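User: Here's a protein and a ligand (FE2/S2 (inorganic) cluster). What would the complex look like?
Assistant: Let me lay out the input and then the predicted complex.
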Amino acid sequence: MSVNMKSYVDHKNGILDRRIFWDDDIYQLELKNIFARCWNFVAHESQVKSFGDFITTYIGEDAVIVARAKDGSINVMLNSCPHRGNKVCFAGEGKIRSFVCNYHGWAFGLDGKLNGMPANELYDDTEGFSKEDWGLHKARVETYKGLVFATFDEEAPSLADYLGDFRWYLDAILDIDDQGTEFLPGTTRSLLTCNWKYPADNFVGDIYHAMWTHLSAAEATLKETGGIIVTNKNSYQTSVNGHGWEFSLANNFGNAVTMGEKEIVKYLRSREEKISQRLGEVRSKLLGSVASGLIFPNLAFLPGYLTFRTFLPKGPTETELHCWTLVPSEASDEIKEKWRIGAMRTFSPSGILEMDDGENWEHATIGNAGYVTRNQKLCYAMDPTKNQKVDIDLPGTVTKGQLNDANQRLFFKRYAEFMDAESWADIPLATKTFE
Ligand code: FES
Ligand SMILES: [Fe+2]
């Protein structure tokens, strides 16, 4: 199938065709032109720390294993046996020496190589058969400061080029000291009846919803402030290659406060000066502030809570959420524990804020498929600072004020670029301003 996605996505005027949220032909093209092409987040290095550690996840709908091999390399390979196609690993995570397929017993190493099979001699006498040809299909793997990404596209640019200057912002979470970061143990998984792009566009630039969707929860948890205060004063949206971050520089700890763990706010405050010396004043305000971000296409994060999550597509109207909590490695066990509880209280399947969101995305998805409804457009036009000069010099496409639809329009612009491209050669990349 080929579509002219630009006819569905009018990013300039902020008008979207609802079809992109439920149509199966479009969804199948997304699996090919987005997920099989992009650098997809698959793990944090701390989840596969040593030889034998593995976790399983998905790139698009392709099941993959992420495993640390004996030589220290991290390998990402299809979780599908090349013999008859059975899954070779059914666990979510663990430690193992080899993956042995349930069906006929082919055994694969942590590097994906086919090491052996029952009744080996049957193959010794098979002309032209070579074990080297029949390992698990592998993806390219690169890391950025603890985050592991993989792509199945040989033509994809380097991860550094893919992230571009968005790395400058990511460092405000990933590079605040020499010790780096880690994920707390465990993954929460939940299934939503929504299109994967709803959560993606929500995190890339939609703080607008927080004032309404989360108002009641915010009042209940933060009674002294009476809810979430978000303004376009001293706040911004920034976008690079479809990745986006909307943030306030006015309240350094706004997100962190809503976790209800005073010790975390104290901890963040105690780190601020050192982070400012390392990364400059602007970035020292990003770790806990009222903000959200997304690495295109489907890895989102929230400063403060430090929840990281992927929106794994399971068809046009289903999405599996995998979530983790990231912490600075140098933090004490006590602080890490408070982070775990604070993140679970707010942004977990039963979290007081997360539950608000899922329902909206589900009803938006289901509603769009109605026969008459599908022919109506969606409004992404909010642009209240259009004629105002951006008063700050930051990398990327910067828009003044976090309350606008700018990043969401740029996300869908990027989406359309991928969907309409024949190959990576047709996909533009923003020039990097540093290495
Ligand atoms: S399908 Fe895996 S060994 Fe046959
Ligand atoms: Fe939300």
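Summary: The chain has two domains: 5-32+164-426, 40-143.
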